[in-house]
Amino acid sequence: MKGSPRDRTVPRAKKESDLARALLHPVRSVPLAFLAVIILGAGLLMLPVSRTGTDGDIVMPALFTAVSAVCVTGLITVDTPTFWTPFGHTVILGLIQLGGFGIMTLATLLALLVRKSLGLRGQLVAQSETHTLNFGDVRAVLFRVARIMIAVEAVTAAVLTVRFWLAYDDNLATALWHGVFHAVSAFNNAGFALYSDNLVGFAADPWIIIPICAAVIAGGLGFPVIIQLFRGTKIGDWSIHLRLTVYGTLLLLVAGFAFFAAFEWDRPGTLGPLSLGGKVLATVAGTVFPRTAGFNSIDYGAAAPETLMVTNILMFIGGGSAGTAGGIKITTFLVLGFAIWNEVRGRDQVTVAHRSISASVQRQALSVALLGVAAVVSGTLLLLIFTDYSLEKVLFESISAFATVGVSTGITYNLPPSAEWVLMALMFTGRIGTIAVASAIALASRPRLFNLPEERPIIG
Q1: What's the whole-model pTM score?
Q2: Cβ count near 234 (within 10 Å)
Q3: pLDDT (tens digit, 9 = 90+) per residue, 297-310?
Q4: Phi-psi group of 132: left, alpha or beta (phi > 0 → left; psi -120 to 50 → alpha; rest → beta)
Q5: How far apart are CA 296 and CA 329, in angstroms?
């Protein structure tokens, strides 16, 4: 006998509720939200009012630009200032702002959600370590992130506007637009510029390069770090996250400056023709921008292979967590470094500044790093299959896409559609995947009530 209609609707309703619950899970909702913004942005960029010409395929340029803008990467397949109209530039600017704001808020809220899922003791430790907001202060998180973004972008835009207006013969409206666009692009580590050579024409101008570098670093530190620094927390009371992010940033900046200067100082195609001050300034930019900013003040196509290798390392590491920077993040890199160091010294616990790093955090860092390596290797292999470029160039392009950096040796313009899809997947994975994976691992971790017998395989 067939069941009644009521009997048949119950399983259907249950399936619908299960689907809704699965889609609303925070780890899944973040990628879906960003995917929705990408589709909306691509649709707006496909409108005739968004581009200067009417011929040729618009779907792939619009989709690629939307992915690059929302993922705050900066890789482009068309010339931004000439291909898109002012309306198109406005759409790109909006996508950059939404992408950066979304990353900072969602990453911070996911971190708070992970902390909420801990036991009472874990919550107390996390609260004392992070000094951030309580989980219930969602509105406070949103408003604080918005205030910080607007404040940094406004100051940067003001400096850039005055410089463009007084030094480059732009009228006030044009100078203001260029100042705002590049300030937003800088703080969000997007790397989009309204000049065909990006920032190469301003390589020796400190009033352009220094404010942009400062905004890039501020956006790359991450919201929790900025909040603690604004509170004036004494160095002795800094949390582990704050210590790792600030000291790691300084270490990478100093090391990057030394290597960049050593390899490019007299190279004819990059720093060679510049004055002493211009060389120093371009070296600073060459150290800051690969930290996921995407701007470039030199031609990376003319850079030395050693410089490209150092840039690969800086790009892959990236910036701070819960910020606009990409990569596997400084904290991930340093946690793994301290784990290796303590293992070499024969210590059972991984310690940083008289605090121990739990085994679950170490596994989380290892998972993010290895998944990043897998993504880059897979992307590089596919680009080698789909293009005729050398391993050096496609590896640089893959890391730049995955780490949401946006610098390129110049091959992005000439890639076939299949390679563009690979880069879009890398950008989306690098921007959303690391946050989602780290949060999923932390939320899924449950204490085991028993231990299995141990066995030691041969290592090395």
Answers
A1: 0.86
A2: 7
A3: 888 989 999 999 99
A4: beta
A5: 21
